[in-house]
Amino acid sequence: MLGAVEDAINSVFDPVASTLSSIVFYEVSIFGTDFPWIVGWLVLAGIIFTLYFGFIQFRSWSLAIKIVLGKYTRKDEPGEVSHFQALTSAMSGTVGLGNIAGVGLAVTLGGPGATFWMIIAGLLGMVTKFVECTLGVKYRETHADGTVSGGPMHYLRRGIAERFPNRFGKVVGSVLAGGAAVTILFFGVAGGNMFQANQTYAHLRDVTGGDDGMLGSAGAALIFGLVLAAVVGAVVIGGIKSIGRVTSRLVPAMALMYCLACLVVIAVNIAEVPNAVGLIVSGAFTPEGVAGGALGALIVGFQRAAFSNEAGLGSAPIAHSAVKTKDPVTEGYVALLEPFIDTVIICTMTALAITVAGTQFYATAREEAFLSGGSEVADGVTVTSDAFASVLPWFPWVLALAVVLFAVSTMITWGYYGQKAWTHLFGRSLLSERIYFTIYCTFAVVGSVLTLGAVVDFVDAVLFLLALFNIAGLYLLAPVVKREVRAFRAKLRSGEVRELEPSERD
User: Fold this and answer.
1) Which CATH architecture has domain 40-491?
2) Where does the chain cross the membrane (predicted)?
3) What percent of the chain has pLDDT over 70?
4) Which among 190, 194, 188, 197 has a CA at the least distance from the CA of 20?
């Protein structure tokens, strides 16, 4: 009976995901490789903002770290959470299975060279995240109960209408804000929810014995999804303060645990590191090979990096908007650290661990299974798990714990993001929020039983559609952010903003 329910869900969802993916990922042929125009949209935004803000991601490290540590934040500043809690809340939505399963898929489909382009995407994404999170705080709304709502639904509508005080500004802002709210809601239940549940179950089933193990029986995925939904729902209902308390402890701990595990894999295969680095660099520029050579590696690398760090999507500003600050740009500086930690550090460590552990099987049967572009591509998380298992047989259990923690934290944060999009569209009321939480938890169950291909198609399509709305608005509002930067820098020079004594800080 339960198996029939799973089959029915897949039969409905698969064609929907395939159709949406084909619409969003319209491709043009470049040097014989199909290139999704939406990937170019993300790349171009990162380049333009990097130039427009004078490579701010490389010039502001010291200031960003001081702000994260609360050295400029007074106790009485408006907002709900500290800079550190806002950062960890947002990172709990990005440091997740995109770092494990997403990187596994990138190396699988684009070869080791995709790692190089993931790093470039992360560096460019730092500025995009800086822009959107500054706007998120500037145009946030504080409600009567003291809670805060922010994100693209607010800065696209209010910001564009304010900058262009005519019919054009009002119409364009409303259209972009509405489109962003709808796509955030859909991505929340798909990428931030279904994908996490899907890959968590896939890995736990693999670790416990595959189809013959205790999680391989018909209906096991359904039961797993119900348990996962209950855990996530219990935290999300508490709001951003509850999420901030949980993620400020969970995110640093799980990131440290996972990075240490990656370092062990790399250390055991230390002799393979030079060869792995060579594969990553050469694979990024080779004219032919896996998935269309250099261009194919670039496409895969940027797609996976975007899914992992969410720069340009407008999701992170929802969490960052709740920060305690009166200077919006301070949270922009904090936010630019996200893609570096998420993509440049954690994703790169995952890719390096996979490559050093797998250099011996790129020329064997695994190359045919994983890198041929055929239908036998394995689950992304399984590829990463194989790298861990090459060191010690019990290492996949360490990864299994990381997978569960990453997935739960991501689902918690995206539950909050989706809630803000939902209330923007349907209003803030107890009944409205209860309906949303019911829907969100239901899709956690649905994601557990779907096939990976259908979930990835749907997630990628909605993710890049969200980027279309958000980045269009960022271009229009970039001058607003530049004014905020200049004003804050002037306050620093004049001493109006200074490093506070410990007793003055939040």
Assistant:
1) Up-down Bundle (1.20)
2) 35-56, 84-108, 114-131, 171-195, 215-238, 250-271, 277-300, 340-363, 394-417, 437-456, 462-481
3) 72
4) 190
